[in-house]
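Predict structure. Chain length: 123.
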Amino acid sequence: MIVLDPGHRYELQGNKGGRSKVLEFFKDAEINGDGYDGTTIQEVLRALIERVLFLDAQVSGGGTLSFVGVWRTQILELEVRAAGRHGLCPFEARRVTRTGTSIRSGFTPPHHARDAAHEVLRS
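Prediction complete.
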């Protein structure tokens, strides 16, 4: 991997010496001075989940569901973070554990936000 624009643009090596590809994340001009369109970490994780599940269906391997679960949790946390940064969903991020709920800030999520969060985990 070669960093072309730190935090935003990366050149990824192709498999078996194949052609490299550029992975480009959204860059906000208001924050960075210049900007361009690109993808999000969440979208890359969704692609990785689909890819791993596809490969697992071809040749099953141990651990697939455990890291798919981790990636889905990361998607949820990134979506909550992004919504909060844009003032769309100012609620606390909660992590449900076997022993209860860990609270990270100080608001209660509105029903539509909880429903959206559950939909992310189901996808």
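Summary: The beta strands are 2-5, 9-12, 21-24, 94-97, 100-103.
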